[in-house]
Write a structure and sequence with these properties.
- The chain is α/β, with parallel strands linked by helices.
- The protein has a single domain, classed as 3-Layer(aba) Sandwich (Rossmann fold), CATH 3.40.50.
- α1 packs parallel to α2, α1 packs across α8 and α4 runs parallel beside α5.
- The longest helix is centred in the middle third of the chain and has 22 residues.
- The termini are far apart.
- The structure holds nicotinamide-adenine-dinucleotide (NAD).
């Protein structure tokens, strides 16, 4: 019960890795704020947690919007008075060469994947007591990538730099911040990826389950990781070695 009485806010909690993290936090005693834009999926995660006797609320929030992030943080604090864990998980991808990419699409990826991390840190951290932790979900694409997903890879690289830099400021408040960089994971995001569908990005032999990533997220969020901050844990079943 590593998260007994801990309040855990997870973006992208309606699906895939985010949902698995929500369920694991709840199973270990956490009170979970599920943040997503997909209301049906968010409500499904909340219902699954309630069915197992856990405590969760679903909050509709487009994480790239400052006012929406502030409102999500406020709703969580109104309910449980604090936030102990923030997981910045929700993300999006585009699948075009840079020369064909609309400026708006570039901005959208950066808003959802990176600006959201800044916003949840800016607005969430003031409500986080000493001992709290932030876990950002990066990707192996921050380290080795393929064509047509440059905005996504760039946003994840920026996320890892942000994490290293902000860890120093957060340390003053006794808050830790780390990244998990998953490899291929069995979620809708993986199977909807045209590069994966076409075979341009090969995933055979190294596909993890959302629970494999949730285990790493919960480890970094828990007190047992108290000496770990500002770093990235690659959880990819060895995939980076073959990219
Ligand atoms: N699945 C993989 O193979 C893989 C690999 C490496 C990294 N990742 C990372 O893991 C994280 C989770 O991915 P997943 O595979 O579980 O994806 P997923 O598609 O299963 O879930 C993503 C969730 O984010 C939500 N979301 C999207 N845009 C949002 C927005 N603007 N505001 C709020 N919520 C929004 C979606 O509604 C969805 O519920 C992402 O950061 C992704 O980059 C995934």
């Amino acid at each position: 019960m590593r998260f007994k009485d801990k309040v855990c806010l997870v973006t992208g909690g309606g699906s895939g890795i985010g949902r698995a993290a929500c369920e694991r936090f709840a199973a270990e005693g956490g009170k979970v704020a599920i943040v997503d834009v997909n209301d049906a999926n968010g409500a499904e995660t909340a219902a699954a947690i309630a069915k197992d006797g856990g405590e969760a609320i679903y909050i509709h929030c487009d994480i790239g919007e400052a006012a929406a992030v502030q409102a999500a943080v406020q709703q969580t604090v109104d309910k449980w008075q604090k936030i102990d864990v923030i997981v910045n998980d929700a993300a999006m991808m585009t699948f075009k060469p840079i020369v064909d990419l609309d400026e708006d699409d570039w901005d959208k990826v950066m808003r959802v994947n990176m600006r959201s991390v800044f916003l949840f840190c800016k607005h969430g951290v003031p409500h986080m007591p000493p001992g709290s932790a932030i876990v950002n979900i990066s990707s192996v694409h921050a380290h080795e990538t393929t064509r047509n997903v440059v905005p996504y890879a760039s946003s994840k690289g920026a996320m890892e730099s942000f994490t290293r830099g902000f860890s120093e400021e957060a340390a003053d408040l006794k808050i830790r911040i780390n990244c998990v960089a998953p490899g291929a994971v069995n979620t809708p995001m993986l199977w909807n990826n045209p590069n994966v569908k076409s075979g341009a990005e090969k995933v055979e032999g190294a596909i993890g389950e959302p629970e494999d990533i949730a285990a790493a997220i919960c480890f970094l969020a828990a007190d047992e990781a108290r000496f770990i901050t500002g770093t990235t844990l690659v959880v990819d079943g060895g995939r980076l070695d073959i990219l």
